[in-house]
């Protein structure tokens, strides 16, 4: 496995798109993003080539306009591919797949066996899981936008985003900005990050899922000490780490996430709170980026959306990686969410 990781790193360095990327821990935010993106591409290609002989599976679709059976390729075809056999509406509106009535599945995750398939959009009768996937995706995209919103001389180290608690009124990402220890964001800066988010979402990036081994995950995030510390714990169960790619941005999440960023509609990055740890905390300070969003096609008037944005400005009390902050929240258990 170590030889495989080394080969991947060497290929990335030799790739004509990445000739200037140094193979050190001192990468700029943009260089680290490019490097992870190339490693993701190479590993995805390697896994696809390892599928071997193509086997067929039956996918029994249940839903509009009618139930029918599709014959698809095992470990290759995805629910998104199935939707392409139906209509453009199915392709654009389906956020999640529901397999065999009880397993929520990413739209771009290959199917592994015979199954029944239901496509879930934002208007299904029981939207809880779709809503959670939507908020997790907003956090992922927030991390992507924060990584590109700052000037090159500002180091951006993404830490993590807690699992979504929709009652809190905001999606979040905890971010380390070591070169901005005393930053107080202005209204204009929040507006700029919001504009970056809107621009990114409108590009309609597909949200790709990939499981990788612990060693490769560590190699991909080796310049980020926060992710590097999290990966061994994540991989403890089965040696795997689940990654998602949106555009060129690669991050860690259990998922599932929605199909593509064009399914994100109106959005506002509402506040950024400074989280400070105690003197004995491993992490001294993080910034909690917060926002609120609606799925595409959901319309609210200005007054109603302003109520949501005002609520989303308040400090989200979800679990924090900083000890002092976590201790303060222990008395309010209902607000503590599992990490995404």
CATH first level of the largest domain: Alpha Beta
Largest sheet: 5 strands, mixed
Sheet with most strands: strand arrangement: 2-1-5-3-4
- Helix share of residues? 25-40%
Q: What is the first-to-last residue Cα distance?
A: 27 Å
Q: Can you tell me the residue ranges where pLDDT is under 50 for at least 5 consecutive residues?
A: 13-24, 324-339
What spatial form do the alpha-carbon principal axes imply? Answer: globular
**SSE class:** alpha+beta
Strand percentage: 15-25%
How many β-strand runs? Answer: 12
Number of helices: 10
CATH fold group of the largest domain:
Threonyl-tRNA Synthetase, Chain A, domain 2
Return Rg in Å: 20 Å
Order of helices and strands: HHEEHHEEEHEEHEHHEEEEHH
Mean pLDDT: 89
According to CATH, the homologous superfamily of the largest domain is Threonyl-trna Synthetase, Chain A, domain 2
CATH architecture level-2 label of the largest domain: 2-Layer Sandwich
Question: How many structural domains?
Answer: 3
